[in-house]
């Protein structure tokens, strides 16, 4: 377990769904943490989050207004920080397609700014959040996140004698996160019609807690340059619609620009560098800066077969309709009734 006693940890994009879940996890399970810093650009979200965590009860929590596009501000924020979780991003696919330059500024240049700010301070470990859309991307959002992944992996090669360690976590749809399909369907249910982009569409499914666990695992176990990928179930979009509103009409509306029918997290080309760690897979850098044999022995890492691929349509584990209903009640809406 990661020891955060007397440590300072900063979360970029800390007012987002995962940032808030990470904050809750750290404050509850690591009460001796020195500081938890929420770095984001939305003052209203910071104000609302501060109401949930009043200073009298959580004196170690700090709020820092800033944008990852501003390297100078990041460097100022990283002073005295031990660990950085980089969760800030533009993530909505259609918005990114329509505003490509803005997406690049945040997701690519922002990632580079985080790396540069770490080099100028004493940050010891960095975990960057990725997405399944970064694997064989067909939309701009995925392309920018793939670029971000490459930047963080390569940062381990150019750090010189700086002891900082960079790693990446990649996973699929977070159940109940802002902008995800389940909250959308829950709102549309009252209209009696649920729009389905494609009847064959599938997605990976992970809970917020599962995402939090992955980040904490990477913070404590990364050697530098790994892309960690969870073994998680898939769901069919039609099953989600049925689980939420079995009485609703499902209307096919067509795939949106930049959308896949099935998401991928590991391609056959990645298989040459992909290892099975048990609970997770990890894609290692092609030229790791540490001893591969020692890594394999320590984590009992087994290389996957050549040509191995991991996508939501060919997964071996699937959510059922009843299982989805239970998960929605547990992770999204405790008042959900079906």
TrEMBL record:
Please tell me whether the keyword Cytoplasm is annotated for this protein: no
Instruction: Kindly indicate where the leader peptide sits in this chain.
Output: none
Outline the extent of the Polysaccharide biosynthesis protein CapD-like domain: 9-283
Q: Which GO terms describe its molecular function?
A: lyase activity
Keywords from UniProt, A to Z, are: Lyase
Cited Pfam families: Polysacc_synt_2
Statement: the UniProt record of this protein carries the keyword Lyase: yes
Which Gene3D superfamilies does this UniProt record tie to the protein?
NAD(P)-binding Rossmann-like Domain
InterPro entries linked: NAD(P)-bd_dom_sf, Polysac_CapD-like, Polysaccharide_Synthase-Rel, PseB
Question: Which E.C. number(s) belong to this protein?
Answer: 4.2.1.115
Family, per the entry?
Belongs to the polysaccharide synthase family.
Put simply, this protein is called: UDP-N-acetylglucosamine 4,6-dehydratase (Inverting)
What would be the name of the gene that encodes this protein?
pseB
